[in-house]
Fold these 4 entries.
Entry 1:
Amino acid sequence: MIAFERIEGFDWDAGNARKSEEKHGVSQTEAEQVFFNVPLLLAPDLKHSGTWSRAQRVRFPHLKPTTQAISLRLPLSLLEQIKVEANKRDVPYQSLIKVWLAEKAG
């Protein structure tokens, strides 16, 4: 039995990422996003599964999206302002930057 609650991330290989994009038009990021939708919507896929008799509801409490390290050059004064704001909120400044970027992009 798979311990779904112990799954922490995604393990993509280059071949599967490429095939998913080519065959289904779905990027790796789009495929991952499905697991973070609230509520998670399910629909029958009789073509591929044939039956829902084996289906079970699962949770992934430790699952995190794939991340990629980037280098970002900021003016020193801006970085210091961000660190001050992060300190006020008692969070790491990199985490605060991610939250702010997600809010703007969302």
Note: DSSP finds five helices and no strands in the chain.
Entry 2:
Amino acid sequence: MAVGELVRQYRKAAGLSQQDLADLADLSQARVSLIETGRVAIRLDEVVSIAAALDVSSSMFMLSDLVDNFTEDECLLVWQYRQLPDDFRRSASLLMQGLLGVSRAGGT
């Protein structure tokens, strides 16, 4: 997935308009649109500011090939997970492991 597409998915998952994201990341709405549509290459400083605005790790964008198959729902789940306090994140991870029947080490 292209970085711009991933930015768009995370922005939508956060319930933000392009203008909202632009304001939070100190960019213009036009620049956000160009990034999302892939008409310009995203600069490193923009990756950092957009990631901070969306409260995700900048590595999510820099390693976008690793999340190539994320659906919008999966992006939303990641975003929601990142909004949880640490103790809730641990509980959510344990719940997911229980639902999948796996341990932390990946065994059954």
Note: The chain has seven helices and no strands.
Entry 3:
Amino acid sequence: MEQVSVTPTQLNYTLPRNYQQTLSVIKATTGEGTTATHLRLIYDAANQSGGQLPRGLDVTLGAPVNLTANQSAVLPITLSGDNSAVRVCWCSPWSVTSTRRWPPSPSTCA
């Protein structure tokens, strides 16, 4: 089966204001017979509740990667929040694009 899986499907993280943190927890893995070129995360307002990016939250995504069959790679993400940041419920903010697309699953935050 050709597939690209991405884990975790949810990311819950607490970050102090005015602090930057790089997370290396998002992992993409290709299946048997699958390759992915220029695989990258996308941070898109359309995937956020209300259709807007959260105020005060800066997100920097890592460089694209290429994967051959049965290979894995970490897709790093750097987060920082300034003084205008409010509590953000950011459960499934990313989608991955390449030769395959991983759609973000709808989620609700408590």
Note: The CA atoms of residues 43 and 94 lie 5 Å apart.
Entry 4:
Amino acid sequence: MPAVALFGCDASPTIGAGHVMRCLSVAQSLSRAGWSCVFVTNPEAVATVPNPMTSGFLICTAKRTGGVRRPEDRTHAELMYAALAGRNT
């Protein structure tokens, strides 16, 4: 089983995309070395930085709506744990 790297990073037009882009660079290097890479991010990041979506990495999104937590709104930590455990996110 390959090693797994989990990247928790957000992006949006307001906060920018620098963190996601730096994580993507590290993920690409790890992937070439045989690692499996997973991104846990906010939904806005997928629209702001589409590169991870086209790079073949697993993308898990976590969102909050109006401060009220719904069952389908999972935190970054929950999504990372699920990805590491190999569960469908």
Note: Helices lie at 18-32, 43-48, 51-54, 76-85.
